[in-house]
Design a protein that fits this description.
Structural class: alpha/beta
Strand content: 5-15%
Radius of gyration: 18 Å
Distance between the termini: 46 Å
Oligomer: single chain
Strand order of the largest sheet: 1-2-8-5-6-7
Number of strands: 8
Length: 296
């Protein structure tokens, strides 16, 4: 199997009227600070507070009636699990904790699925998940049909794979950048080596991209579609969260602000005034953490 823009269009048809068509927001302060013309795709305003509902719901809508009756198991740092719970028409779910330093969360989930005869809904390494996530870029290009560059955070690669497939198909010359923090740089390293590498569990404030290796299915798509992965520091992510909240009046979780951090920190080699689409991937941040970030 592979992923095509037709898969993303099919996902968009399934998701129509089931999720929010999130707004694209511009901010003069952001343009002034970066020298670019930035368009923020606000998935922080999506149902359940993140883009994850797109892929989760598309996946569930492709399941057979028998599979739906069996129920599902998801493994997640938070947003995917919430998306799956909402897509399954319930915010409630049984939560199973694991030791990030010792346990393999996917193995834990697969064990539970086998024990309970439920269906695994992975967070990124699934073509239906990627197609659903790609609908964010489809909407962005419908609202802003001319962009020079597109940026999204990169964790396992589902959001980037879906969005990059759309962007590269519609606009072959566009520059596409994934963004990771400098400690959670598994995709950055993998692209340079030409194959998936594994890093230790990374310490980073951006917990949604705290992965140790890119997805087996997502990585080939990223290799074929994106220009590069840009690295930012945790401090630059903190500054982006503050900037978005205080200047653009948008609440983003640290992971959700990673792509904005790449723009604000000047890490992109783009001409002045370049039109840049930035996906704010989520807004689910603990109030105490947000307070600390805003106080600096």
């Amino acid at each position: 199997m592979s992923l095509s823009i037709d898969d993303v269009h099919a996902a968009a048809r399934r998701l129509r009227n089931r999720i929010h068509r999130t707004p694209v927001v511009s901010c003069q302060s952001l343009d002034d600070a970066t020298g670019l013309t930035v368009f923020l795709k606000c998935e922080n305003l999506q149902r359940a507070g993140a883009f994850k509902i797109r892929g989760a719901l598309n996946k569930l809508l492709t399941l057979s009636a028998d599979d739906r009756r069996r129920g599902v198991v998801a493994f997640s740092s938070g947003n995917h699990a919430q998306g799956v719970a909402l897509a399954a028409r319930r915010y409630g779910a049984e939560v199973v904790f694991y030791d990030r330093q010792r346990d393999d969360r996917e193995a834990v989930a697969r064990g539970l699925a086998e024990k309970t005869n439920r269906v695994i809904v992975p967070p990124f390494d699934d073509y239906a998940i990627m197609a659903g996530q790609g609908t964010a870029a489809l909407e962005l290009f419908q609202d802003v049909p001319s962009l020079d560059a597109l940026l999204t955070p990169v964790g396992g690669g589902g959001l980037m794979a879906g969005c990059a497939t759309v962007a590269r198909t519609l606009f072959p010359g566009i520059q596409i950048f994934g963004v990771e923090t400098d400690t959670a740089n598994d995709t950055h390293l993998s692209l340079r080596k030409g194959e998936r590498v594994t890093i230790p569990p990374p310490p980073t404030i951006a917990d949604g991209i705290r992965l140790t290796t890119p997805g087996a299915l997502t990585f080939p798509i990223l290799k074929a579609t994106i220009n590069d992965v840009v690295l930012v520091s945790d401090d630059e992510v903190r500054e982006a969260v503050r900037f978005l909240a205080l200047r653009a009046h948008l609440v983003a979780e640290p992971t959700g602000a990673v792509a904005a951090a790449a723009v604000l920190s000047g890490r992109l080699s783009l001409p002045p005034g370049a039109r840049v689409g930035v996906v704010l991937s989520g807004g689910n941040v603990d109030p105490d953490v947000l307070g600390e970030l805003l106080r600096g």
